[in-house]
Amino acid sequence: MNNSKDSSQNFVIGDKSNSIIKGYVENNTHYFQHYVTFSESDAAGIIYHGRYFDIAERARGDMLMLVPYFDTNFEENKKIHQEIMDNYVFVIHSSSARYIRPIKVLSTIRIESNILEIKGLSMVVLQRFYLDDDLCTELTIKFALVSYKTLMPTRIPEFWVKHFKTLIKQEEK
């Protein structure tokens, strides 16, 4: 795995025919870059408000795919992670968006994701969209974990809680 902290490089897992995960984790934050395409914008070239949630989903998905790599026990982690992924799904409980500044088509943006809180059945994720160093949008999303079999909320497995704690936003001083 490429351990470079350069956000312009991708993590490559296995050989190049395997999946590519965009993004990296540093200082309790998952960093993800995204290039805004015409399909994500309106006639004025501004990102549709709903597309922020689509882009945020891609960033969270890549963050979730990095979980097995959070410590050195990779092979065992990968098995546990896959078992959880096969049996559970995170669903949105609630969300809020704060639009500060529009983002235009053909921009390269950075999404910074942090976990604000993890409780038994849910977690809250803060995702901030930046153009250069300017904050443009903030999404706060609360997720519940649901069993595929019962479609009922279930406790977040301790394996994920342990690893997600590395992404909990530290108090800013």
By DSSP, the count of extended strands is 8
- Which regions are unreliable across 5 or more consecutive residues at pLDDT < 50? 1-19
Strand order of the largest sheet: 3-4-6-7-8-5
Alpha carbon gap, first and last residue: 33 Å
Report the biggest beta sheet as strand number plus sense, adding barrel if it closes: 6 strands, antiparallel
Element string (H = helix, E = strand): EEEEHHEEEEH
The number of helical segments is: 3
User: How large is the share of residues in beta strands?
Assistant: 35-45%
Mean pLDDT: 82
Q: Give Rg in angstroms.
A: 16 Å
Proportion of helical residues: 10-25%
Describe the structure.
- The chain is α+β, with helices and mostly antiparallel strands.
- Helix content is 21%, strand content 35%.
- The protein contains three helices and eight strands, in the order E-E-E-E-H-H-E-E-E-E-H.
- The strands form two sheets. It has a six-stranded antiparallel sheet with strand order 3-4-6-7-8-5.
- Strand 3 and strand 4 form a beta hairpin.
- It is globular, with a radius of gyration of 16 Å.
- It starts with 10 loop residues before the first strand and ends in a 9-residue tail after the last helix.
